[in-house]
Amino acid sequence: MPDDMYKPAAFSPGEFRRGLGDITPLSLGVAVYGLAFGLLAAGQGMGPMTTGLMGALVFAGSSQIVAVERLAADAGAMLAVVAGLALNLRILLMTASLRGELSGRPLWQVLLGVHLTSDENWVLMHATRNKGQPAGYWYLVGGGISLIVVWVVSTALGAAFARSLPDLAASGMGFAFTAAFILLLTSLWKGRQSLPPWVVSAVIAAGCAWLLPLDPSWGLIAGAVAGAGFAGMQRHG
Prior knowledge:
Elements: H1 13-22, H2 24-43, H3 48-58, H4 61-72, H5 77-87, H6 90-96, H7 99-102, H8 107-116, H9 119-130, H10 137-162, H11 174-187, H12 195-211, H13 216-236
Helix pairs in contact: 1-10, 2-4, 2-10, 2-11, 3-10, 4-5, 4-11, 5-13, 9-10, 12-13
């Protein structure tokens, strides 16, 4: 497919709408673990507005889940933020691959595209291209808009609904947190090529957590960095 198809261009309503529509089935899945995250965030004292604002500014489900989990474990706010950032290092590799889509665009479009890039719309954009259909910057943004709206609304609704529950732990909702995180990890599986970085990350994280006298968060951070680094070497190897 010709490279000039993805060069900067004016707003493309058709491409934007296709990205918005094609991502809908994945957005519905995002809503499920968004509700679960909202419930657990409320368990840490976060209200609907705070939870929704966090989703809009951070927009990184796995990082938000890890950060809240670390807060629940009394690991401290700074360590929770660092652990969340480390887990999201893969986004650096994804946005680095968008040079063609972002090159030559005004700064606000670059920042918007980077902020809205997630596993779901990034993969869908490439899958659409592989089918021989055009999918560039505005396709990515259309999918990202759908995802972020669904994520913010579902997490805020989950936090609001939690107020009507007497005790999340006693009601067994604590398991929803674990289930949501497992669902997130499953969504990151892209086939056999995903296995080596996963193994490297898991071995490093487990080794640090079991063998070093440190908070398990540091093992998670080390594992995330090692996994992202290994994936980067694979990509450029």
